[in-house]
Design goal:
The chain is built from 2 helices and no strands. The chain is an all-alpha fold.
């Protein structure tokens, strides 16, 4: 990621902890495979957008 991607400060402990926790729970997988967190996000997005849609992550 470049310098213009994230404006959250340098070495923010709260953000660093959140990233570390995520890294302990989910490694990268192709979008060809479903994951529980991905499914949870898709369900939430669908609900927030009125339901009945299809969510595709790239």
């Amino acid at each position: 990621a470049g310098i213009a991607v994230v404006g959250l400060g340098h070495a923010n402990p709260e953000i660093a902890d959140a990233i570390a926790e995520q890294a302990r729970t989910l490694v990268h997988v192709s979008n060809l495979y479903g994951t529980v967190p991905g499914t949870d996000v898709a369900i939430t997005l669908d609900r927030l957008l009125g339901g009945g849609g299809q969510i595709f992550f790239t």
